[in-house]
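ok so I'm stuck.
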Amino acid sequence: RELDRVLPPSVTCNAICPGFVPGTAASYATGWQRLMLQYVLPRFAFTRTVDEAAADVIWALDADELSGVGGRYLADRSIASPSAEATDPALARRFWHLAESLLKQPLQT
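replied:
not stuck anymore, here's the structure
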C-alpha cells in the first residue's frame, strides 16, 4: 500500500499471495523436511504448484478489473481482505522508513 501510495498515479502496485507452494520451500529445506515438502505435502489439496502460483501472477498482470487499481491484496484471482495491520497507514510508513534505514538510503519512487 505504501509503495502504491508513493508511486506516480500512472503506476500501480499490488501484493499477491501465491498460496502455499511446497516445491519452492523444499529448495531451502534439508533432511526429512525437504522430503515432506517435495513428496508428501504437494499431495494435499491446500497446496499449489509453481505453475498454479505463476498463473495467478500472470492473471494479476492482465486482469481488466485491476486496471488502474493499486494498493490491494490479491489471493485466488480476486481482491482479498488483508489483516487490519496491513491496512494501517501509520504501520506502512514505519515499515517504509525501516526499509530505508536498513538499505541505508532513501527508496526512490
